[in-house]
Structure formats: structure tokens, C-alpha cells
Design a protein that fits this description.
Layout (H helix, E strand, L loop, with lengths): L1 H20 L9 E5 L3 H7 L4 H22 L3 E8 L7 H24 L2 E6 L7 H13 L6 E9 L1 H17 L10 H5 L12 E4 L18 E4 L9 H12 L9 H5 L1
Parallel strand pairs: 1-2, 1-5, 2-4, 3-4, 5-6
Helix pairs in contact: 1-8, 2-3, 3-4, 4-5
The protein binds 3-methylbut-3-enyl trihydrogen diphosphate (IPE) (2 copies) and magnesium ion.
One 3-methylbut-3-enyl trihydrogen diphosphate (IPE) binds next to strand 2.
């Protein structure tokens, strides 16, 4: 059994390395956003409680973060908890918030070793005090890292974010700090929580769902979407490389025609 497991993981390694070699290093997305979905269904398929699925999903977070940093991706944004997720059973919400504290604390050393900066977007002031504290500590302890930025979307809602930006801009206009004519796409982007972060070129959603669930509506306006039926805990480096390969095989026309892109 032990030999079989070793053999399988060795095969996995060879397979993911073979896929990795196909990636064009000159055409990498700078920013990849991921809706990590399917933890609950994965757990159910394994005859386990939902929380077991969330715990198993941490391994995928680690794999994807490592793979992205190795490739030279600048930003990874992970949808970890939406504003709508508060509507789940209290036991699940509590378990998720506890898991967040444990994971952030446990991973800080690895993030620092790998020179990865942690950031968060969303209404984080409304998180439970312990989760908020662990998050702020994680952000503070990794703030000088420069290789890649890992953004966690926590208590995040894109509609909330857009409304917040609108309110801030309206306030500046009414106080005379801004003129109506000053409002353009760039100014608006600078009032979102993703300020100074380039828009994601690639969005990945696992678990077979084809929706955005209130995630980065403004920022994903021209992103390529990659939907896979794989549940998040089964999403590994090879799956991640496949998503990037799919992105690299697409023609991003930005309203133009194919011939203009090729010339
Ligand atoms: C994603 O997995 C994790 C969070 C939303 C926190 P789900 O918990 O949504 O798993 P499914 O979609 O119920 O299978
Ligand atoms: C989206 O997943 C939010 C996160 C991955 C954190 P959900 O599982 O909550 O999305 P819906 O409810 O199926 O749209
Ligand atoms: Mg889900």
C-alpha cells in the first residue's frame, strides 16, 4: 500500500511537470482569481462532514500558491468567504472562521520563506475578533515580501465594494475635493479594495458551477473564465497548470478582430 501511494504520487509529480513544461513563461497572467468551490460536495462524496472538506481544501490553497509563485505569477486572489456565506449554518461558519485563524497562523512562516505577501479584500472589520487579529498579523508579518501577493477575499461582496467606492467618490464630489468630470475608470478603480492590483486576466472556478457569486464584478470585466468540474480539495498543481494552458490557448481580442491581434 505504501509503495503504491509513493508510486502514485511520483506519477502525479511527473504528470504535473510534463504539463508545466508546456506553459509559455512569456504569456503568463499577472493575476489569477480563484473561486474555491466544492468543499462540501467533496466531503459528502467521501462520507465526511462538510468541515472535513474545508480542511482538505487548505492543501489545494498551498499547492496553488506554491505553483503560482514558482511560475512567476504576481497576484493570486482566493475567494475564501463571501458576505452571503454568513447565511450558512452557524456551526459551519464558526468552523470556517476557526480554520482561517489556524491556517493563517500556520502558513505565515512558509509565506515568509517563499517571499509571499498576504493581503485581504472585503469588509474584514466584521470578521470575528480572533480571525481579524490573525489576518492583520499575517498581513503585517509579510508586508515586506516581494515575490508574489496572495490576496484573500474575506467577507467579500463585489456589490458591497462597488457601493463603498461610489460612496467615497460621492463624498469627495460633495465636499469639492473632486469634480464630476474627474470620475473615470481609473479613478473608480482606485476607490476599490483592489487599488494598485492589476485586474485578473484569468478566473478559475472549481466544482462545476458557472457563476461569479458576487466576486470581482468590476475587475473581471475582461477576464478569461475557466470552469472545471473538479472539487476544490482535488484541485492540484496539474489542474492549475491546465487552467493556465487553457488561458494561453485563447485569443484575447478586446473588441478588435483576429487579424489586428496577429499583426
Ligand atoms: C467552498 O466550498 C468554500 C466556501 C464557500 C467557504 P463550499 O462549501 O461552497 O462547497 P459546496 O459548494 O457546498 O460543495
Ligand atoms: C462562493 O462559493 C464563495 C466562495 C468560494 C467563498 P459559494 O459556494 O458560496 O457560492 P454559491 O452560493 O454556490 O453561489
Ligand atoms: Mg459552494
Amino acid at each position: 500500500m505504501q509503495f503504491y501511494c509513493l508510486y502514485v504520487s511520483y506519477l502525479d509529480l511527473i504528470m504535473s511537470d510534463t504539463i508545466k513544461l508546456k506553459i509559455d513563461k512569456n504569456n503568463l497572467p499577472k493575476h489569477i482569481a480563484i473561486i474555491m468551490d466544492g468543499n462540501g460536495r467533496w466531503a459528502k462524496a467521501h462520507g465526511k462532514p462538510r468541515v472535513f472538506g474545508h480542511k482538505s481544501g487548505v492543501k489545494s490553497v498551498r499547492e496553488v500558491t506554491e505553483a503560482a509563485a514558482e511560475l512567476g505569477i504576481d497576484y493570486i486572489t482566493l475567494y475564501a468567504f463571501s458576505t452571503e456565506n454568513w447565511n450558512r449554518p452557524t456551526t459551519e461558519v464558526v468552523a470556517l472562521m476557526t480554520l482561517l485563524v489556524e491556517t493563517i497562523r500556520k502558513e505565515i512562516d512558509t509565506l515568509n520563506k517563499n517571499n509571499i505577501k498576504l493581503l485581504a479584500i472585503g469588509d474584514i472589520s466584521k470578521l470575528p475578533a480572533k480571525t481579524h487579529k490573525a489576518l492583520i498579523e499575517g498581513i503585517e508579518n509579510t508586508k515586506n515580501n516581494t515575490r508574489m501577493t496572495l490576496v484573500l477575499a474575506l467577507n467579500y461582496s463585489s456589490k458591497w465594494e462597488i457601493l463603498e467606492a461610489t460612496k467615497k467618490i460621492a463624498q469627495k464630489v460633495s465636499s469639492g475635493d473632486l469634480k464630476l468630470e474627474d470620475i473615470d475608470e481609473s479613478l473608480f478603480s482606485h476607490h476599490l479594495s483592489t487599488v494598485n492590483i492589476p485586474d485578473p486576466e484569468l478566473l478559475i472556478r472549481t466544482s462545476g458551477e458557472s457563476r461569479l457569486s458576487n466576486f470581482l464584478l468590476w475587475q473581471l470585466a475582461y477576464a478569461e473564465f475557466y470552469f472545471t468540474p473538479i472539487y476544490w480539495p482535488d484541485f492540484d498543481k496539474a489542474q492549475f497548470y491546465n487552467a493556465i494552458l487553457s488561458y494561453q490557448n485563447r485569443e484575447r481580442r478586446f473588441g478588435m478582430i483576429s487579424e489586428q491581434i496577429k499583426s
